[in-house]
Amino acid sequence: MNQSMGRFITLEGTEGVGKSTNLQFIQSVLEQHQIDYQLTREPGGTPLAEEVRELLLANRDEIVADDAELLLVFAARAQHLEQVIRPALNNGRWVLCDRFTDATFAYQGGGRGLDTDFISRLESMVQRGLQPDLTILLDLPVEVGLARASQRAELDRFENEKLAFFEQVRSAYLARAAAEPDRFAVIDASGTLDQVQEQIRVVLEQFLQQS
Ligand code: Z5A
Question: What is the torsional sign of CA 176, 126, 77, 35?
Fold first, then answer.
């Protein structure tokens, strides 16, 4: 590892897995270890990319073409990488990002059924080899996640998708984790919050020791 670079951690999962809840826990562990980190999210992370996020999540009468959705995701990502992620890592800061390109392979690839070779080509163009060092995947049966998330007042364009869509998203995530076991840590998110966070703590402590 280049010692001057920060480390890049991403958090992923399907609907209702507890990403927001556990993000706070990850932050607390990093802070206990006095890690200087930048918290960010995708789609979003810069003013322009946050505007793209709003475009992506808004419910609308017009049908959004799958390719348009994919290109918007990568447009936001290009801006986010340029303005936030690369500068932070180059300055030795760690980056903790709520979702990244694995979400594209899961939602646009798995959920929408887009060609993963095409997604890979966009990934190469926009990321130029940059990959997360650690990806924490919170995994949960889709029905359990949807039941947890159903408490929300208003559902966005993705949250309004059907069960089969989220099953495909989950399968795509698990396939990516199986293909890259060194980068991914798959967490069983079906237990109590304490049980989930204990698993996350173990993964982070191990990663911190290696970093
Ligand atoms: N998207 C995409 O399509 N392509 C891409 O490349 C990217 C994203 C990057 C927005 O993401 C959408 O963008 C996303 C995919 C798409 N759409 N969806 N769906 P987001 O990350 O902003 O949206 P989100 O998935 O809704 O994230 P979230 O708010 O962090 O969700 P969450 O995982 O459901 O987190 P939560 O609010 O912490 O947990 C849900 C509830 O469960 C809550 O009431 C908790 O108190 C409860 N909870 C949490 N843990 C537990 C445990 N252990 N037991 C019981 N209850 C629990």
Answer: positive
pLDDT digits (tens, 9 = 90+) for 13-25: 999 999 999 999 9
Q: Where are the domains of the chain?
A: 8-210
Q: Any bridge partners for residue 94, and if so which?
A: 37
**Best of 11, 15, 20, 59 to mutate for ligand 1, by most ligand atoms within 8 A of CB?**
20
Residue of 133, 102, 106, 124 whose CA lies nearest to 6: 133
Domain topology for 8-210: Rossmann fold (3.40.50)
Would you state the structure tokens that stand for residue 197, as one six-digit string?
């966070």
Q: Which amino acid would we find at residue 167?
A: E
Contact 172, 104 (CB under 8 A): no
87 CA to centre of ligand 1 in angstroms: 27
Is the CB of 150 within 6 Å of ligand 1? no
- Token pair, residue 46, equals 């810069």
Q: What is the pLDDT of residues 66-84, one digit of tens each?
A: 999 999 999 999 999 999 9
